[in-house]
Amino acid sequence: MTPFVTILRSAFVALLAFFYMADVAMSDVLFERGQLAFETTAGERITIDVEWALTTEQRARGLMERPALADRTGMLFDFGETRMVTMWMANTPASLDMIFITEAGRIVRIAERTTPLSESIVSSGEPIRYALEIRGGHAKELGLDTTAHLVLPLDLPK
C-alpha cells in the first residue's frame, strides 16, 4: 500500500470515528489513568501522568473540550498496531504537542504547539503505535525530542 493510500485510510477511519462519536454522549467516555516515562540520551527520566486512550471511543474523544492541561500530564493514544496516524484539533481549545512514537518507543516526530480548534490534519509522518498529547510547548520544556525513548513495556490497564 502506498503512503498516500495509508494516510487516506487513516483519515477516513478518523472521520468515521468522529461521526460515530456524534451519536455517543461525549461525557460518557471515561479514561483510566496511569504513568509513563521517557529516558533522554543524558540519562534523565521524565515521568508523565496520563489518561489511556485505548478504545475507538476514547481515541475519538481524546482531549476535546478540555481547556488546558497541567504540566507533566497528557493522554496516550494506543492504536493497537503500527500504522500511519492522522489527528486533528477539532473541538480542542488548548494548543497541544503531539508526540508520535513507534512500538519500540522511539519518538519519530513532535508536532509542536498545534493550532487549537483546527481541522487541519496532523500526520505521524511514518508508521507509529502510540501518540502522546501534552500541553503545547511542554515537550521542549521537558527536554523531549526525537533522541528520547518511551520506557517500555507500558503498564496499560487490562
TrEMBL record:
InterPro entries to which the protein is assigned, alphabetical: DUF192, Saro_0823-like_sf
In the UniProt record, the signal sequence range is none
What Pfam families does the record point to?
DUF192
Superkingdom to which the source organism belongs: Bacteria
Name of the protein in its database record:
DUF192 domain-containing protein
Q: Which organism is it from?
A: Rhizobium rhizophilum
